[in-house]
Structure formats: C-alpha cells, structure tokens
Amino acid sequence: MTVATLNPTSDRPALWKRLLGSELWVLYLVVLYFAAVLPFAPRLGSAENLRNVFSNMLPLLVVAAGQTVVLITGGIDLSVTSIIGLASVAGASVITADGGLLPGGGAGIAAAIAVMVTAGIAVGAFNGVAVTRLRMPPFIVTLTTMMFVSGLAVWATKSRPIYNLPGEFNALGKGIWAVAIAGTVALAIHVLLGRALPGRWIYAVGMNLSAARISGIPVNGVILSAYVLSGACASVASLLYTARLETGSPVLGQRILLDVIGATVIGGTSLFGGKGKILWTVFGVALICVIDNTLNMLGLSYFVVMMVKGGVILGAALLDAARTRLLN
C-alpha cells in the first residue's frame, strides 16, 4: 500500500491571490506606490511632506467615514461637498471679527460649531427623508441637494470668503486638535459598525433591504440615520478645513467629491451596499492623499491629476470586483 505524501502548501492560494484577498491590500498599494514614486520625487519622503500628507488626510477621513456608512446601506451622498461649503460660511459668519454675531470668545466658537453641525444634520435629514419617505433615488436626491446647497452658500455670501476668524477656532484645524477630532469621529463610527446593534442593522439593510424589513429592522430609520450621520461628518470636516485655512468659503471642498467617493471605493466599500469598514476607508484616504501629493509635487496640471485619480478609482472598482469573485 502506498502512502501519499501530504504537502501542506499544495492547497495554499498563490501569493497574488492572498494579497488581493487580504483586508490590507490597499495598504500594500500605498507602500508600493510610495516606493515606486519616491525615486522621481525625493521630497515625498521628507518629514515635512509626510506631515502635510497626514494633515490632508484628517478632514478627508472624516467626510469619507460618513460616506462609508451611507454606501454600506446601498445609498450614496453626493451632497457632502456642498455641506462643507455651507457649514463653513455659516460657522464663519458667527465668529468673524468683521461683523460676526458672536466674534471671538469661547461662547462664539461653541455657537459656530453648533451652527455648522446643525447645518450638516439638517441637509442630511432632508436627504434621508427624501430617500425613505418619498422613495426617491439617492443619486438624484443628493445631486439635487448638492446643487441647491452650493448655490445657497454662494448666494448668501455673494461668493465672498469670510476672514478674520479667532485664533482659538483656527487652532482646531491644526496639530493635536485636528488629530483628536478626526480620530474621535473615525473611532466612533468604527465602534458603531463593528460592535453596536445599529451597525449590524446598517449592514443588513445594505445586503438585502427586503430581508431586513421582514426581520423587523427599522429600515427607514437606519437609512435616515445614515444620511444624518453623513451630513454631520461633512460639517465636522468643514470645521477642520475652515479652521485650517482660517477662512470661511462657500466653495470649500468643491473639488474633493472624487476624493471622497474614491477613498471609500478604493478602500473596498461596495457601491452596491452591505460591505465596508472604516479601516478600509483609512487606507483608501491614505492612497488618495499620497497620489494627490505626488502628482502635485511632479508639477502636473489639475486636469491631469483628475484624469489619474479617475483611472485609479476605475482600477480600484475593477480590483474590487475581482476580489469579490475571488473571495466568493
């Protein structure tokens, strides 16, 4: 009788399959891209530049975290960039030294933050109600909201930036304050999705809406809450952007919609719902910010940068489809 020799590695998948199937595959892409571009842009690895990349990641991570929750439910929120602009001018108009309602002081800053977050929640609630109660497609609802809110912010300020914000407010967008704010938001949503019952509801709604409703999950409430959370995250990101730039602007964040969607999709959050993690979004944000930083460092035009980003996002979508087939 012949005894077959067992090879413990014979059934192991190929290295590329293990990498593609790993939850850290986007992080591997970041490292690979960084190593490939470094010889052409040596300043990329400088401490000053790395601090700049990390600083750029913080507000983008906050708004992308909210977008992640909406995408997991099977929706999409295109209005986040317009919320950033509206919240920026709303908060800045409260505390500016040029005729603000409560210029300077702790009370004024607290009021400005409250106004900014309220603006984001209000727009998010409108989106959620239109999607759940009026049964409107999320793409159309949030696209229309984006256009209206953007126009409202420009009309209210006559397209003029708001300067002379108090130093205490500006400090919130820099250093340890910015890290603490962005980290708190990301950690809270991570806990929500990974350890809380509402988080399981969010995934269930995205995986199968009808089954979730039959199971007794408050589907409309879950979807509404997702859009409210997305709006709140966009307003917190607006706080970080406004404080960092020390200016309230109606067009703040106007060009980052591709970055927000791209970071979540590149990270692995499905456009069809039911799949996504904040950790994945962190990796996606890192890749987007590193790509943006290197392309600008190489002196490429804005249009070339957008073309490259679009290609990267398309490639990420194709890789995500490949990963889905591989893991299933």
Specify the number of helices: 14
Radius of gyration: 21 Å
Helical/strand content category: mainly alpha
User: What is the chain-wise order of helices and strands?
Assistant: HHHHHHHHHHHHHH
Low-confidence runs: none
Helix content: over 70%
Explain what you see.
This protein is mostly helical and 328 residues long. The chain has a domain at 59-254. The chain is 72% helix and 0% strand. The protein has helices spanning 15-21, 25-37, 47-72, 80-95, 105-132, 138-157, 167-170, 175-195, 197-207, 209-214, 219-245, 257-267, 278-297, 302-327. α8 (175-195) packs across α9, α12 crosses α13 (278-297) and α12 packs parallel to α14 (302-327). The protein is globular and about 65 Å long. The model has no long low-confidence stretch (mean pLDDT 90).
Question: Which features characterize this protein?
Answer:
single chain, 328 residues, mainly alpha
Q: Brief description of this entry?
A:
This protein has 328 residues and is mainly alpha-helical. It is built from 14 helices and no strands.
